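Memo to structure team: turn this sequence into structure tokens by end of day. - J.P.
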Amino acid sequence: MSTLMLSLQNVSFAYPDGYQALDGVSFELAEGQTLGVVGANGAGKSTLLLTLPGVLSPSAGEIYVRGRRVEKSSLAEIQREVGLVFQDADDQLFTASVRDDVAFGARNMGLGDATVDEALTLTGIAHLAERAPYKLSGGEKKLAAIASVLSMRPSLLVMDEPSSSLDPKARRKIIELLSRLPQSKLIATHDLDLVWDMCDRVLVLRQGRVAADGDPRQILSDQNLLEKCGLELPLRFAERTP
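Reply from structure team:
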């Protein structure tokens, strides 16, 4: 049996205006692995994430999730496997209470309330279950958005900028939570320190192509590579400078 969670084979995507967001992207993700995807604005990170659950369809190439090709006929099964957490939690929270938001997807999939309680407990927000989402802090909203995806029990967690706009304490809570989760994870982020701390691999995108793929500590300490890709060294390097 294959141990691959995800496989992309020469995936390209162009928007209607002709902008080539992805250009022949290929990589694999093993089950249980955490992959960070980094790159400058416009490198293709968010577009890549949207192709994985079939929100966007590649103009060329193939995507497989646990050996099943992502295509129109398989979308229902694929979207059970792939849980997508948006950058802005407000895009994911829309009901009158945290519990209803966390339960929405699970109930549509026919899962019981036990999965909802499990997700609330796992993310540490069970005490916020009856609160209105708009009354939550940024960090609490982010946790609620993650819980709304975890309640559907995905095998692959796909996240866009999970630490953006968070204060240091909330950022640390998110990193600690993600580090505990057993799912395979693909995280697109500008937070290179997050990738350094919790990712098994890092994929660097540049103008829609893979510029590097490998060990985070080797790639994220390569200043020349990062500068060519419009990135800077992780903040931890600046902290060491006298």
